[in-house]
Amino acid sequence: MKLNKSIILAAAVAFGLHAHADPELPNIFGDHMVLQQKHKNPVWGWAAPGESITVVIGRQNKSTKADSKGNWTVKLDPLPAGGPYQMVVKGKSTVTYNDVLVGEVWVCSGQSNMRWTVAGSDDADIESLSANYPNLRIITLPNVGTQEPQKNFDGAWSAVTPDSVKSFSAVGYYFGRVIHKSLNVPVGLINNAWGGSAAEAWVKRDVLEADPRYKELMATWKKTEETYDHDKVMAAYQAKRAKWQEQVKKARAAKKPLPRGPRVPRNPLAGQHRPGNLYAGCLHPIIGYGIKGTIWYQGESNASRGEQYGHLFPLMIEHWRDEWQQGDFSFYWVQLADFRGELAEPAESDWAELREAQTKSQHLPNTGQAVITDIGEGRDIHPRDKQNVGKRLARLALAKDYGKVVAYRSPEFKSISIKGNKATIKFDHVNKGLYAFDTRDVRGFSVAGKDKKFVWAKATIVGRDTVVVSADSVKEPVAVRYNWADNPIGNLTTKDPLPVTSFRTDNWPGLTTGVKTR
User: Fold this and answer.
1) What confidence tens digit (pLDDT) does each residue in 128-169 have?
2) What is the DSSP letter of 279?
3) Half-sphere exposure at residue 85, Cβ-oriented, CA atoms within 13 angstroms
4) pTM of model > 0.70
């Protein structure tokens, strides 16, 4: 049946008027949400231009008018931890949110190791069974890659239950659980991670285009954007698939092994690597929501560009803070875990260079990193032990944000002095003192002379913060490295225990030096 065009137009206009007659809010606001305590929480949405909007929560009553484009925002007065509250948004009609709590809110972002679920991690069965935390709330954003800033997303808040926790970020949950139980206040966790995502995808496009350091990176992407034809690629895929299906029929008839089919091609223009895509598609809908801070687990996708990450990652952090307009909120990240095979001899490592970039990013205020080179899995880029990752991130927040007396920072290289064939290394942040885990021998150190050839070294703890390093074959050492490998073998920790941060005392060119687009 054909519909009259005028009827369709009238219906569309009526729908549009109806849509703007009601106050609308993004789905970051909803039943069971958590608002950040002691913070002037923004509440925003859309209505008809000029429409009067009132937000009521507790004894507060905040009013405003939608601007000429229908946008409106109010800021609530700070609320103490507690609840539940009811929040009512009144315009030409009314939107009501029930079971609203006030407490601590954290964004959980990054790539697949942050997205990795409780169901896919260690002890998933008993962790799920014991997940009964009505005041620990969670919400997950979908993966949307686009250059157009999104106003909303498909998602809703829920309490942590044995069922709801299974599909939530394991690192996020284990972090949030420690915070919730330690502070005895409601906690809200916003899971906003995308597997395989690159750091540049989380940065607004024009920020990168305005920075000459990313000229080559952006030029490469502009070429892809101008030349990539997804319809053409899909047509080629369908042809290959049709051919494969014929091969499968013949293989089955002949009772032979079935051939592997072609992979469905991904559209890079809608993916998680394109600069600005995740800023616009995943981050933009929640920017401004009141938070305490962010925990971040990403870097694997940028490992081949470790030197560049040294300025790209701090840029991203500062960019998020600028966009949020909430000051230098806390930003804590996970350093890359150990991965790939252990090597018989010292070698260059792009993963070590990425870790170095992460460590140096701590020059920004209110930042910190959880070192996990002791709990990764060489055979799998997704280590299943997410409990310890979450706990180490929680240590940072407990100490730096909540004033709890806990060890939180892994030891880091402080100084080197060389006398004869021995190098004396001193460390900062040793807490209760250095300790060699598992064996009395300290493993993971290497030294090099002027020839820049590293060999394994003997290392001895000689004080709570000092290690002496030497190798018989290096008479005049000039550089020392520790855990400088994709999959390091070091066992130096504190007695707390927190693993010592990988480092090098040299600044010689590495695998990622000068790499800008790979």
Assistant:
1) 999 999 999 999 999 999 999 999 999 999 999 999 999 999
2) I
3) 23
4) yes
